[in-house]
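Students often ask why we bother encoding 3D structure as a string. The short answer is that it lets us treat folding as translation between two languages. Here is a chain of 200 residues written in the first language.
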Amino acid sequence: MTCGAIELDPAFGCLEIINKSANSMPQDLATAFSEVNSGLLGATYVPIWIVGRQLVNGWNYYLICDQIRSTRDSKTSVVNMVINIPPAQNDGTTLPAKIVEIIDEADLSEDLRVIFESTTKLLMGASYKPLAYVGKQVVHGMNYYFICEARGIYPNAVPYAVMMCINDMNGTSSIVSITPITKEETTPTSFLGKPLGEWP
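And here it is in the second language, the structure alphabet:
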């Protein structure tokens, strides 16, 4: 599947792209998010961005979240959470929402892993961990898009979510852009080449 000139990864190809700040969370998702997180032990989750949703026995929503672990140092990470909201039953009742998956590091193919690691290891000041491979686009070689956790290389650095674009041309890769993903609708950031918050 393609989205404009972007060939989406199969995991994202079936998604209806929402691409909005968690501040704009629809009521059904806000209720489901609160329900599934109320019973969790060991960590709390704060939604940052709604990537999209997929029709799978109701709706699977893909969210980028801050994960705050219940430890002495309250370590924070950025994760990709998938929540399922089941459809209404024949009698009008609904089953409870549930967490399908919490992805703290994407399982990349060998080719993508080599491109990602060989490029990001040259960066200074921060480390990057892929949470999702979004897709690719032919631009003077190939542009690859990843949602990542970024973390400054200094004590007690607070991680944050970014969209990273890596260009690979004949085996030579370089960073095209690293764009923060935040809860603020007004932040001038982009996703798949469009301003965040302006995806149709």
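Translate back mentally: The domain at 13-103 is CATH 3.10.450 (Nuclear Transport Factor 2; Chain: A,). Keep this in mind for the problem set.
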